[in-house]
Amino acid sequence: MTTLVYLIPVALFLGALGLTGFLWALRSGQYEDLDGAAERILIDGDEPPK
Amino acid sequence: MSCCAPGAEMTLDLAGATSVLPSSQEIRLASRSIGDNLCQTDLSVPTIHCAACIQTIETALGRLDRVESARVNLSTKRVSIQWRGDEAPPFFATLGRLGYPAHLFDPETGNKDKTLSELIRAVAVAGFAAGNIMLLSVSVWSGAEGATRDLFHWVSALIAIPALAFAGGIYFRSAWNALRHGRMNMDVPIAVGVSLAYAMSLYETINHGDHAYFDASVSLLFFLLIGRTLDHVMRERARTAVNGLSRLAARGAVVLRGDGVRDYLPVGEIEPGMELHIAAGERIPVDGTILSGISDLDCSLVSGESTPRTVGAGAKVQAGTLNLTGPMTMQATAAAKDSFLAEMVRLMEAAEGGRSQYRRIADRVSALYAPVVHLAALLTFLGWMIASGDWHLAMTIAIAVLIITCPCALGLAVPIVQVVAARRLFEAGVMVKDGSAMERLAAIDTVLFDKTGTLTLGQPRLINGQSIDPAMLAIAADMAAHSRHPFSKAIAGFAGSSSQPGLQSVSEHPGFGMEAVTEGNTWRLGRRGWAGWKARTGGEGKYGGYGGTVLSKNGMIVATFAFEDAVRADAKATVGQLQDAGMSVQMLSGDTANACRDVASTLGIEDFVPALLPSGKVEWIEALSREGHKVLMVGDGLNDTPALGAAHVSMAPATAADVGRNAADFVFLRESLLAVPLALDISRKAGRLIRQNIAIAIVYNAFAVPIAISGHVTPLIAAIAMSASSLLVIGNAMRLQGFAKGSSPEHASRDRRGRAGMLVQQP
Fold it and tell me: Where exactly are the transmembrane stretches of this chain (chain A) (predicted)?
């Protein structure tokens, strides 16, 4: 029972961390262009495209 | 046309683009200001397809003056460019030179992504809550007792609150809306079931009870939200694809003021009496009268006539027609809201009958289902009340009945099939506006086709090319390549590009034809009376009927060209397949009886009605509907728009007028008409699967409800039963992907090959 007192918050915290991460990625537009992101790794060059 | 290099112009023209590149003012009108003197313009570039394209476009646009940044979105095939200053940098010329035909995209109104991101966030929250609660529930099922169980229940109750508030809110709002209007939809039993389950579980938790249904209420929301999100994504994709097509209505026009000032005004601000300058390649923005200039007008989108009309001073022109060859000055006689286009929209709205009365299968089922379920729960409560007298026990069992019958499978049964079907159609280049369109398409028994632009491409094709002297043909093709007239494009397209040296001073005489000089000889390509101004001798052919286009050398006719309107690829096969499927196929057209008879006999259509006005088409459809027929209308022109609205269900090609595309339920992007039988076939199969899925859901209830009424349901049984029925329904829907592909491998491969071609073809 005592282990549960900290294990459950830890589990929930980690889950919430994942959820926040996902929502952040969504908000910052990382899901806007999934096909483009897959292709862009093939573009090489020293400077990032403008 | 001033801004672009001639080379780029040629490539674009040969690729089928009939309109001029948008002027700088038009780009300005379609951009949105993002502050700090910056403007953002969105372009739709359908031919982007790989990393190399992205890089080429971004570097080339980024190098232009005053361009702040250019970003390609490969998923939506769009480029958004941020630029500063008053005049738009030459995006179109740059992209044209690189071989990427582009067109302007209207600025988004901003409501596009709100629903989607709300749904995705709701799925994420519900998924997180469902996962965690399920873990705690499994511990309870495997034997947690006493204080531990109470702790787990309390934690579950806490986790469920954000899920219910955030994810459940979508269902509560929709259910409340339906109830307020006295209707019933699938969300009503869902909202009732979820909230009662939560309330009862909370009561149980407070009183240290055994059974809590937090897991059931949250995972139910999670499953249903997945279905709803997929449905939304599918429709959004179709909508974006249709929006990405080029706009065929004028955005604005150059207004000539009395003092010689030229202003570019949006269509809505043009008033009767204003003088407008219409360059070659522009669309007429409002109804009007021509003051000066001679040109050929392409009326195919407006009237369904395929041969261009020659107009001069004094002629009346309708909004939406395309000015092909020469610049003109016209006087507006009506504002945009009173023009032909607006009249069509009004006719369409007046005609919209059958569609608004249609009720979706899911709504019809839930109108029956919800009262039955709620009545069953009430009877269970009363029954147990009488039998045991324990209101707590009676209440628990009644709520268990509601939970187990909560239409998880039923809520997924219809949308999941439609998502799979829409995806299958999307791959074949057919965009579906919403799920109800597929339900309606499955019920039709009559197919009506428009002629010009639908059964035919609306573009003439050279038919006597083989019998013309190749040397003459080559000269004609070189001259023709300088013109935008459909006949010229047909000649140029037939001969291909065989660049002949020596053509000097090619000039276009609007309404007559082309003139060129080589080594002292004057060549003319155009109307018989104008080109062959000397004796009518030489290679006169017997094909005189279709316009009589000739090539002459110093006034002597040396070649005669004959054209016919090219029939759309696979039109005959399409008509055959539809007739085999038991459809009655008819053709409605605004064109002459003779032109219709030719096309109808080529395609094997027995019934056709020529020379119909837009309202005539609507009346024809309404007459058929009164006889009890369900009509599919396939059409593209402005004159078909009211008919598209009046029909039970409608389809339009990507080349259709803007209003038509928006009015149609289905839009097909590829050239082949086989999209029509394909959509019909998939819709019918989807309809069958939907009925099967509903049957599965009902059978599930037939087993589960007696168990629930007898009081044997525990949270574990509810969780297993609900997940199992959902999986069964989803699995059944996936079969559509399998057998739709299996039955038409031939179409699939042909479509795939056609894809590249079609993308280039979109004007």
Answer: 6-26
- State the distance between the two ends of chain B, measured CA to CA, in whole angstroms: 17
User: Which amino acid, residue B361?
Assistant: I
Over residues B64-72, mean pLDDT: 87
Rg (CA), chain A: 19
In tens, the pLDDT along A30-45 reads 887 888 888 888 887 6
Q: Which residues of chain A from 1 to 50 reach within 8 Å of chain B, CB to CB?
A: 1, 4, 8, 11-12, 15-16, 18-19, 22-23, 26, 31-36, 39-43, 45, 49-50
B51 → closest Cβ in A11, A18, A42: A42
Residue ranges making up the domain that contains B90: 6-108
Domain count, chain B: 5
Residue B240 covered by a domain: no
Residue B334 has pLDDT above 60, yes or no: yes
Give domain status of residue B242, yes or no. no
Is B224 found in the same domain as B117?
A: yes
Domain spans, chain A: 2-40
| pLDDT band, residue B744 (cuts 50/70/90) | very low
B644-648 mean pLDDT: 87
Q: How confident is the model at residue B534 (pLDDT cuts 50, 70, 90)?
A: low
Statement to judge: residues B611 and B745 lie in one domain: no
Output the six-digit token pair for B360.
């979706």
Residues in chain A: 50
Residues B130 and B65 in one domain: no
Test B62 with A43 for CB contact under 8 angstroms. no
Residues B13, B42, B298, B450: which is the catalytic one? B450
Q: In this prediction, what percent of chain B has a pLDDT beyond 70?
A: 88
Of the candidates B446, B399, B752, which has an alpha carbon nearest to the alpha carbon of residue B607?
B446
Torsion (CA) B417, B421, B423, B426 in degrees, nearest 10: -160
